[in-house]
Amino acid sequence: MNPLPVKTWELKQATTSADLLAALAAGFTAEPSATTTSTMTFFDDFDAHLWCANYLFCRILFCGTDEQRFQLIDHAGNAEETSAFDHTKFWWDFSEGCAQKILKNVIGVRALMPVASLHLLEQNVALRNYDLKLVVKACIKSHVVDTQTTHYLTLTALRGYTKEFTKAADIIAPFVKRELDAFGLKYLLTETTPLSFTPEQTSLPSLTADMHTEQAVRAMAVAMLQQASVHVPGVIADTDTEFLHQFRVNFRKLRSLVSLLHKALPAETVALLKPTLSSIAGATNKLRDLDVFLLEQDTYRAMLPENFSTGLSELYEFIELRREQEKISVARYFLSDTYANDLAMCAAELSLPASLQTPMATKPLLRAVNKLLLNRYHKMLTMSTVIHSEAPDEEVHELRIEFKKLRYLIEFFSSLLPPKRIDKFIGTVKKIQTVLGNFNDYGIQIEFLSSYVDDNRIEMSKALSGLIAVLHQKKMAERQKVDAALANFFTPVTTNDVEFLFGATTSGVSE
Amino acid sequence: MKVVACYSMKGGVGKTATSVNIAYLAAKSGLKTLLIDLDPQGASSFYFRVKPSPKKWADRFFNAYEALVKHIKASDFDNLDIIPAHLSFRNFDSLLAGFKKRKSRLKTILKGFKNEYDLIVLDCPPSISYLSESIFMASDVILVPVIPTTLSERTFEQLMDFFDENNYPHEKIVPFFSMVQAQKSLHKSTMEAMSARYKIFLASAIPYSSDVEKMGEHKAPLDVFAHTKPANAAYTSLWQEVANALAK
């Protein structure tokens, strides 16, 4: 069946609903419903995940009533209702159902924040024929921003009554300012309100294959520092745990960049940056460990039998308390002069013009990067030859770090590398990183939990010992996978691919 | 897509009231519903204030789905559309007589709607004819209103015999008591006897009600103007049973 026409017009400023109703009464029996006045507040997370996934999540407050509704609206305008009790911050604060599931999938552990609001007046009008049969649906919407009101009229045709739709459209023509192609909440939010849903992110600078390596490193490092800093207010406010995580991810990348390409920077710059960046990152380690443990609560609870639940609850209460203390300590650090001065010093040092003191500093970027990648791969290949089933954990750990560096190096400069082949290679690297990462994570978790064993807290320590034992088993099982994963990765085929990918000295973007 | 026919050989048993209220309640529950008024009297179209096209078009009804689409009209309610009856529908039998595969003709035509509607409700004329057989073939459920009187009992027996003779599946027949006057001993005894004999009767029974008669005055389903009345409760319960039968 053919779709039915639905049209929306922005009306001339002076038009009132009384004018419209009087005009429509000439051709129809116009039956207006009561006008509803509502305020819609839209929520999204810091990354605007909902907006990017074509969802709108809003709270609707109907004026003159206590009624409050939460709706998750998809791209087609279908609304899923949900409700909240005390808080409206995380997906788990909303009632179970379809909307909650979507929120969970789209925003994960991120917090919702109000990002925009609309004040709307809405009146539906049924247009009926001489038999009082409904033949056209009309809706008059008025959008109030400050003291200015914009009026919109939507006419919806009904199957079998398209002639009446045309007649209604003709009647309202003198009141029309312009017809709108796509009218809806998204239109009102983007066209008429000053608020933006786009996330506050800085992008990395664009690179060229033949630019000086020092110049590229400095530009990238400045952008990375800015990108990390964007998350600091969220950490201080403790809006959600993802702010700290993203701060750390960006900071880790910055430190890797400085470390991997230290030969492109003057020695004194590196000597200044390395300890300062390390000290900033180190101030957040403890809080992240506590966050990870709390976020994995359900997984940990599932690891132990029911009789450990008292001890686990005691452990979680204890960890939550520690987190509260650590959160305050990290917030104080980010508000301190120490942090402000360190950050300003790093930013100033990185923003200096390229001094081109070292041989690598003046090298064309792609040549320098390719060489670094090749060298790193061969170093890793050598390291892998000494890893066997009895090799100490430290050796596996060191190789894991090398993989991470290799991956960062590729990702930093991926815009200069042949995209399809690089994507394939990164996919292979990711697979082995998962195995090595899991093995390392179990080790870190064991170490973290061991630090809380306390002879004075018997039940809690029993739970801790239980978790450590289970994690140890998992770690051993993961260790079994390491040798096979390494053997699968370090093959003559991979070496050939790497030689081919990074052996070229000119831009390899053509494939 | 499922097809429910409201059918009885006998007139005045509540087929149209059932079609109108069932179609409305199905649409209200969220099912995209199409009510096809096959009875040339056009009563269910009238209840929804829908008028047919003035042109005779019965001769195109069984041609193709596209011919039907042109005659669909929206009701005043979300999810509910109607194909209104035309007086020319009285010629359906002679039209069907001219087709080779007349029994499956309606089924084939209705299949065209499977992407647009979840449910089709057929308001059938009171007869046993080529059209009826076409309806039996096309429907998943044949909803049969039975007034608990001797004459209606006889009509129902005739329908069951007809199904036996023609090897139509009995499972499609879903009878329920209609226009029940509980104070009448005849109604009471007939219901007991028929329920005992035919285990297929639905538990819901529609009471004889002046509210049902007022549907013509209001030109609307019961739920719109008699929401709290027993007759509306009975149709709501009937729709639940029909929905369960369709889900099986």
- In the CATH scheme, what's the topology name of chain B? Rossmann fold
Largest sheet of chain B: 8 strands, mixed
Note the gap between the termini of chain B: 13 Å
Total helices of chain A: the number is 18
Strand content of chain B: 15-25%
Number of discrete domains of chain A: 3
Q: What is the structural class of chain A? A: alpha+beta
If interface size is counted as residues with C-beta under 8 Å from the partner's C-beta, which chains form the largest one? A-B, 10 and 14 residues
What does this protein structure show overall?
The complex is a heterodimer of chains A (511) and B (248). Chain A has helices at 17-24, 49-52, 98-107, 162-172, 185-191, 213-229, 232-237, 241-260, 267-282, 285-295, 297-303, 309-335, 337-351, 365-385, 393-412, 419-450, 458-489, 492-503; strands spanning 6-11, 29-32, 36-44, 56-62, 68-73, 79-82, 113-128, 134-145, 148-157, 176-180. With 511 residues, chain A is α+β, with helices and mostly antiparallel strands. Chain B has helices spanning 15-28, 43-47, 58-61, 65-69, 92-97, 102-111, 130-138, 150-165, 185-197, 210-213, 215-218, 222-225, 230-247; strands at residues 2-6, 33-37, 73-74, 80-83, 119-123, 141-146, 173-180, 205-207. An eight-stranded mixed sheet of chain B has the order 3-4-2-5-1-6-7-8, sandwiched between helices. The longest helix of chain B has 18 residues, at 230-247. The two termini of chain B are 13 Å apart. Chain A binds chain B through residues 1, 126, 131-134, 158-161, and chain B through 48-51, 69, 71-76, 81, 116, 219.
